[in-house]
Design a protein that fits this description.
The complex is a heterodimer. Chain A is α/β, with parallel strands linked by helices. In chain A, about 20% of the residues lie in helices and about 40% in strands. Chain A folds into 2 domains: about 1-260, no CATH class; about 370-420, no CATH class. Chain B is α/β, with parallel strands linked by helices. Chain B has one domain (about 1-245): 3-Layer(aba) Sandwich (Rossmann fold), CATH 3.40.50. The chains are: A alpha/beta, B alpha/beta. Bound molecules: adenosine-5'-triphosphate and magnesium ion (MG).
Chain lengths: ~425, ~250
């Protein structure tokens, strides 16, 4: 039983953990016992009330072998290589054509303990600490430069619960060697009659000239609390593109830290939030410009309906020495009624003098003139709204960088958007 | 086809239209002229059903039906078209998508088959040549970043593509260079037929030189104070509006 308000101590250490891993987890436990989860008065957590998830006593999830489990992205079959992580348990990872190892299967050669925490450990807090004190396995995906053509990799993080609330703390590490490329799709979904907490950490290390296209689809059930903690560290001239969709869960949060650690690296982070009912969402994206001539783009689009609430923050931190940094943050949102709420806060923190940084945020409603123009040309009021919302979301939906799945994801996004008005 | 009886309308607290009556039959071209702020666009928008305006009283019959009870898209589907004085920019929606869906929505509502992509392309190509619009413009987002003249040409392209029964063109001739004015005028001339009606809202005689109106109405302060034939437009061009106000003004 795990009570998030109390100190966590009783969770046994998995036998697959060596001394290094053991030390890492002990560090996590210590940090968590000091930090706990944030209260309502802590800066940045005031507008994002996580009390509902703190009040629950969780059971550590058991491996589920439910053969009738929901298959969220069946359409990816045949065009992606797939690995399922169910309730935090990594399923068969062989035969994908990728070089993959896990602690539990004993096929890791010692790289996991070396890499864990190296993509930005010191930057994480709260939920990252929670994961670091409870995780029981780790999967490593290593991509080397070779000329093999591979399908994109798809990691489905699924939670299957019953009447008892469960918690899982998955841990994924991705290492892309010099000049190598990876296309990765990650999804969060689940099914349960009681609430569950999926608290996942993904750490990504891109070496020189590496490139990664990353798509995260969070379409979790109404029972879900989903926390996606992402750490990326980028080598020289590397490129990282992230596109995220947040359309599910009752409480969800993304905490991203991207460290542009060597010169000429670039990242594009694009997020789309589709809020309905009483959903509560928070995304905090921090880009650390730690080397000269790096580029970052953060684009956030939010469409809120029902009584949903979203808090979006972007931090571009340009550290001393990161001259010729180029950072742009753009936030745009549309409120579909007056019960939903969106806060958008771009922040710039600049400690270098020769930089190009800008940010902008707009919160608005659908444009009445545009709606009327469309209707004067024969579009129904519903179609007019749909056309405008799709146009608004197009930056994300139309530009999914993983070509093999972009049409599928686009269609999926537009279907999800259809139920924003209920 | 259109019969407006004693129409009063307002925006918020402001009463703008103060009793307009106007009858348009098939095959007729009516020009509405009048000083800035007199209510010409308000009249056009109210007929098209813009919810930003409130109708306070009066009746409007369109092809025998109570127009004021119809939702804007149903008016459009019943063949009512308004060319906007300020065409609206819709970033993210391509002009060609907009035109095709607009045309097909109207066709289907009238019991016709929708055009498929090939049929539509052929049809559109023909109309574009008629208005002198480049293909490039149809691939761009609706009116987005279009110059003033391009926006007006685009309204005329829509007029020709949709081929409505009644067209209300609100200053489609404003802000055009001489060549563009000719294309717009010839577009309207092509559209004009025995089967449809046209209301031209304009400030200038030069459009009416190309499209001689059957009737000219002078709208001042929310009322039609004077109606006449095409000679009236020439007189207005020469003398302005003050004499009309003095001789016919309500106050
Ligand atoms: N959204 C609005 N809110 C308040 N008043 C408005 C609004 N739109 C128009 N008006 C007012 O209504 C009156 C009529 O405006 P309208 O646009 O119908 O005039 P118009 O005859 O078309 O003028 P123009 O020749 O300049 O196009 C004007 O006094 C105008 O200021
Ligand atoms: Mg006007």
């Amino acid at each position: 039983m795990i009570n998030l308000n109390k100190e966590i101590s009783s969770v046994p250490l998995p036998s697959s953990f060596n001394a290094q891993m053991k030390r890492y987890r002990e560090k996590g436990l210590k940090r968590y016992s000091e930090s706990g989860l944030p209260g309502k008065k802590v800066e940045h957590w005031m507008k994002f009330d996580i009390n509902p998830l703190k009040e629950i006593i969780y059971k550590e999830a058991l491996e589920s072998i439910d053969k009738n489990r929901p298959d969220l992205h069946r359409e990816f079959t045949g065009i992606c290589e797939r690995i399922d992580i169910i309730n935090g348990f990594i399923q068969d990872h062989k035969g994908t054509g990728y070089r993959i190892s896990t602690l539990s299967s004993g096929d890791d050669t010692g790289r996991i303990p070396e890499l864990i925490g190296s993509a930005g450990d010191e930057k994480g807090n709260y939920f990252y600490n929670l994961n670091s004190s409870l995780f029981s396995d780790t999967i490593l995906i290593r991509v080397e430069k070779d000329n093999k053509k591979r399908n994109p990799l798809y990691i489905s993080q699924l939670m299957l619960g019953k009447s008892e609330p469960i918690i899982s703390n998955s841990r994924i590490i991705v290492e892309i060697e010099e000049g190598a490329k990876l296309e990765l799709i990650q999804s969060f979904s689940g099914k349960s009659s009681s609430p569950y907490l999926n608290n996942s950490v993904t750490e990504i290390i891109l070496h020189k000239n590496a490139r990664m296209d990353h798509v995260v689809l969070q379409e979790d059930s109404e029972e879900a609390f989903v926390f996606n903690n992402l750490f990326v560290t980028q080598g020289e001239s590397s490129e990282y593109n992230l596109q995220t969709l947040n359309a599910g869960a009752s409480i969800s949060r993304n905490e991203y830290h991207i460290n542009l650690s060597r010169k000429n690296s670039s990242c594009h982070v694009t997020g789309l939030f589709l809020g309905k009912k009483n959903q509560l969402h928070n995304s905090d994206v921090t880009i650390h410009h730690n080397a000269p001539a790096c580029t970052s783009r953060t684009t956030t689009k939010a469409i809120a309906g029902g009584a949903s609430q979203g808090v979006f923050r972007g931090f571009a931190i340009v550290n001393p020495g990161a001259q010729k940094s180029d950072a742009i943050q753009q936030f745009k949102s549309i409120l579909l009624n007056d019960t939903c709420q969106i806060n958008m806060e771009p922040h710039l923190e600049i400690w270098a003098d020769d930089v190009k940084c800008s940010h902008g945020a707009t919160v608005g409603q659908l444009d009445q003139n545009q709606l009327f123009y469309l209707q004067q040309r024969g579009f129904t009021p519903e179609d007019a709204r749909k056309v405008l919302l799709e146009a608004f979301a197009a930056d994300v939906a139309e530009l999914i960088s993983i070509e093999k799945v972009n049409e599928i994801i686009k269609a999926g996004i537009y279907t999800l958007m259809d139920d924003l008005y209920e | 086809m259109l019969n407006v009886k004693n129409l009063h309308a307002s925006i918020g607290e402001n009463k703008i239209l103060k009793g307009i009556s106007l009858k348009v039959n098939k095959g007729e071209v009516h020009a509405i002229m009048g000083p800035n702020g007199s209510g010409k666009s308000t009249f056009s928008q109210v007929i098209a059903g813009n919810p930003a305006y409130q109708v306070n009283s009066g009746d409007v019959l369109y092809e025998g039906e109570n127009l004021l009870d119809m939702q804007p898209h149903l008016r459009a589907r019943a063949g009512l078209f308004m060319g906007f004085q300020y065409p609206v920019e819709i970033p993210g929606v391509t002009n060609i998508y907009f035109l095709k869906n607009s045309l097909n929505a109207i066709r289907v509502a009238n019991g016709l088959q929708p055009l498929d992509a090939y049929e539509f392309n052929d049809y559109l190509g023909q109309k574009m040549d008629e208005v002198g619009i480049s293909r490039e413009l149809t691939r761009r987002a609706v009116n987005s970043g279009f110059s003033g003249g391009e926006k007006k040409r685009n309204e005329i392209l829509q007029l020709l593509v949709l081929n409505p029964k009644l067209a209300i063109l609100d200053e489609t001739d404003s802000g055009l260079d001489i060549d563009a004015l000719k294309t717009v005028a010839s577009g309207v001339e092509k559209f004009r037929s025995q089967n449809n009606g046209v209301i031209l809202v304009t400030h200038y005689q030069r459009l009416l030189d190309f499209i001689p109106p059957d009737f000219v109405h002078v709208l001042i302060d929310g009322e039609i104070v004077l109606s006449g034939d095409s000679k009236l437009a020439l007189e207005l061009e020469a003398r302005g509006y003050n004499w009309v106000k003095e001789e016919n003004g309500s106050d």
